[in-house]
Amino acid sequence: MSPDQSTELVAQAIYTIIKILLVMVVPSLILGLIIAVFQAATSIQEQTLTFLPRMVLTLLMLVFAGNWILQTLIDWFRNLMLIIPGVFG
Predict the structure, then answer these.
(1) Cα-atom radius of gyration of the chain, to the nearest Å?
(2) What stretches pass through the bilayer (predicted)?
């Protein structure tokens, strides 16, 4: 395997991981920001007020985007399986 091929493979893996994580993390960050503004406006400093909605939203994102996440991982592994014979052959 040439350095260019290995670099491309690692770059594709990192890009795939970032795409999958952004689907789950960004909505949670936005909700956390909204809740933080609400807490600052009302002076409520309850820890569960920030944790529980973010956890529920992350789980909902897994439910709704799970099919897309699995399809993205399957596509990456299918690409990997197509590359492997050329690496060792």
Answers:
(1) 19
(2) 12-39, 51-70
